[in-house]
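Reopening: structure tokens for the zinc ion complex, inputs below.
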Amino acid sequence: MGFTAHWINLMMLCVKTVTYSILVNGEPKGMIIPTRGIRQGDPLSPFLFLLCTKSLNGLLNNAAHQGHVKGYSLCRNSPPLTHLLFADDSLLFCRATIKESQRVLDILDVYGKCSGQQINRSKTTIFFSKSTKVDSRNQIKLALRVPEIIQYEKYLGLPSLMGRNKKASFNYTKERVWKKLQGWKEKLLSQARREILIKAVIQAIPISTMSYFKLPVGLCLEIKSLIRRFWWGQKGERRKVHWVKWDTLCLPKKEGEMGFKDLANFNDAFLAKQAWRLLHNKDSLFYRVFKMKFFPNCNIVPGFEDGRVSDLINPCIRTWDENLVHGLFLPEEAAMVLSIPLSHTPVEEKIIWPFTPSVRNFMWRACKEAIPTKHNLLKRKILNEDKCEHCGVESETTAHALWNCSTMDEIWESTSGFEDRSQLGALNIMDLINLTHEKRKNVDLLAMVMWTIWHQRNQLHASSNVFPKAQVLQQASQALTKFQQSQQSLTNHAAATGPQHCA
Ligand SMILES: [Zn+2]
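Re-run output (same inputs, fresh job):
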């Protein structure tokens, strides 16, 4: 293929200096020396692929140019496609004639001889358009010696052909989510861990599909309810209490919520990104094909020529230019754009919890009235009465259980900064946190003591012991000190191993 011996030698060193061992019954075995391929995941491999397929690309373009291979046009005037190549997936298009398919085969043969690569016929399939006659189908299949496919095959993990039933085409996304969730023994995971799994793993599953397709709304709802049930936990068929509405949980973290993704919105955002590409990359094959097929006489967003979001914002007063927004978008869209808050600098001060996920999750739930206190259980008709078990007088609301109950006097009176609770007369936990913050008291200590009180309360439920009040403060302080030390050592570590040349 015209590479110099020195270059080939360098590449082969990358291949041959690697050795592999494989785990057999948990023990590494063998020193396997590869001869044919570069290490998987090596950053060089996509470049090597590009360099090699450049010649295949050239051969196919040449054949198309000379009219030997016709390719496939999506519609009249659309540029004909002869091939689409990506990583280990290649799609080749030609007319359904023996002559053209033989041409394609010849090209692959020449490429194979030059590059040393060969067609893997067991991984190759052929697809005919509906108008192809059965006779010619059989002849071509015989000549190419590859099997025919009918429906729902995938290209890059995405369905390449869409049937009438869109939901059936994408059902695999839901099945993958379901399988993952089944794999995790949900009852053994804390809610904080489930949060991480949902965000890092589950919500990532449909991303590649959603980047290119609009998932049916019904499917999004089904996936949402799978995730929701996992988040709140479920024992067998019995559904657990869903303490907070899912829509609320999808609000961003900076508004004090969980920041889960709303799948349908997420999907729209991804597709908007594709529209953005169609606005700005007008040399791409993607643009040329789509323009002819879908918007031959205008832009993808009519009237929006090379626009930027910043053009829609008044730079001095940092607000949306309402007239312009209304002029460019439909009323509904304009309302959505105008409802997006713009950042004013300087950014306002916020309370940020530097805590372990468990404590953070607990405090979030306490603020949301989403912990199973007797009062909350009564509201949901799970209990018939809500009297506090410790004082036996008042109803056990979240604020009562963690803060107001007279039996907690001993704990709070010895907690520095909170000796006189009547000073901080708050109605709920959210208020209390804000007041604590305003009065510059120790919010961390408050959170840790509350978390420990709740922890002890729940352990008591299982036994008949008395509330170990003396231990609460001690435990909370220890946990807090431990946490602060670990944070401190992290900062020190970062400082010690930071970039040396900066010093
Ligand atoms: Zn009480």
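Strands lie at 20-24, 27-32, 83-86, 89-92, 154-155, 158-159, 234-235, 238-239, 313-314, 319-320. The radius of gyration is 32 Å. Marking as resolved unless the reporter disagrees.
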